[in-house]
């Protein structure tokens, strides 16, 4: 009840302070989202019918600004939660609320807030509703815009762990953080008029959690600190960040006292018709939570970005996705995008009359090398190994080699042809119980689009996946038809035709109809959903098998 009272005080204070009829600079924005499921039992795919039969997730964000003042809240309702969301989401109430003041010099927030330092490897709090993920901080945040672009940030609060009986429940620990960014060109004379632009940054984050462990003596204050640099020169960009973490015994690392570190670097070059990106990441013992006893995706203070391309096609994105390994990985990625020149006279150049683009991407992740320490060190201080940044072993976690060709044949017809070679170590990134070791798969996809006229168009996908492990080969077909800008129909069939068990060579068919008008969107879907992982940016949640109706409604204002 305390949270509800605080939110009501916030809104009543803000709204009563201003006269709606005489002040026209009051701005209220927000959005509404609701998802409803009615599920059937389907023993063939392992789908269960919930006792309630009907499930509902609903959200409404309201943001208010008036001059320099701001306030906001998110109302949430799980009656009960739809399948695949954390079992600690329950009830109706206020899941986020804040009030603040902002001008050109200062930005202060009291209540709930999201924040990121640098690339996020030191601190990142954010919400992703599709993942059922929300690690917001509740407390106090201060931002200062100082002299000539120098910025300072300070945060202090507790993280959201769950939403029970319509109220936020917090993690046990307290999070404190400080970050600064410094544009070097503004303060070094010979750099002021140069094409080279240099920005420096530094972060310090700590957490406090009382030691209530009966077996070990645990540190109660744990610090993470590091720095970053960003260089820009014409069409070239190079940035890097490195952080170190004090020893942080937790359930994740089986209560060892090793320190941790993380490093990330990105190089890019872009010009008309060409782009190049090269990235590298090294992570060791970097599980950093505000509650050392939690697991899965609960209350991470920092964020370790995935070093692989984000895929959207059904078989590529949902069957063998890769989740970042916070206890350790050394990963690399390279991507090249090249657009072949157009040619007015069809056929003289490979680009054709309307242009052709080629995208090639390679990403890998390996287990870091862990050098054994002496038995004395293990027994005396539980430091079980030593490691260095970018010191990788030959143990493969993930490899993805893909290429796609996008071509417009004429004013009405276009296609995308893609190939993916994906290998994933199922002993580490556990995604299925039916295979051991590395699963190799080859995926080919043909996507086509055709415009009949200014209102009607059709899009199709044909996908095939070949593997000798797990559940065998798959095929997916997608057809979407658009009736102007308002109405669309779609159907997808995911078929496990290569399953060694003939009884499980199942069609997962789902049909969708949607209606869009201005900022309102309504979508109805009915059919089967395969059990598996849903991942975004290296963060995943398990989605159970289902059979039934899903209705979604979104509205922004």
Could you explain how this protein is built, in words?
By secondary structure, this protein is mainly beta. Helix content is 5%, strand content 55%. It has three helices and 33 strands. The chain has helices at residues 2-17, 314-318, 375-381; strands at 26-39, 54-66, 69-78, 91-102, 106-113, 116-117, 123-124, 127-128, 133-134, 137-145, 151-164, 167-170, 174-183, 196-208, 221-233, 236-245, 260-271, 274-284, 328-340, 356-368, 371-372, 385-386, 392-408, 413-425, 438-451, 456-466, 474-483, 487-495, 507-517, 520-529, 532-536, 539-543, 546-556. The chain has a 24-stranded antiparallel beta barrel. A hairpin with a 2-residue loop joins strand 29 (507-517) and strand 30. The radius of gyration is 26 Å and the shape is globular. 28% of the residues are buried.
Strand content: over 45%
Shape: globular
Total beta strands: 33
The main β sheet shows up as: 24 strands, antiparallel, barrel
Would you tell me the structural class of the helices and strands?
A: mainly beta
Helix-residue proportion = under 10%
Q: Could you tell me the mean pLDDT?
A: 91
The residue ranges in which pLDDT falls below 50 over 5 or more consecutive positions are none
Count of runs of 4 or more consecutive helical residues: 3
Alpha-carbon distance between the two ends: 28 Å
Gyration radius over CA? 26 Å
Short description:
By secondary structure, the chain is mainly beta. Helix content is about 5%, strand content about 55%.
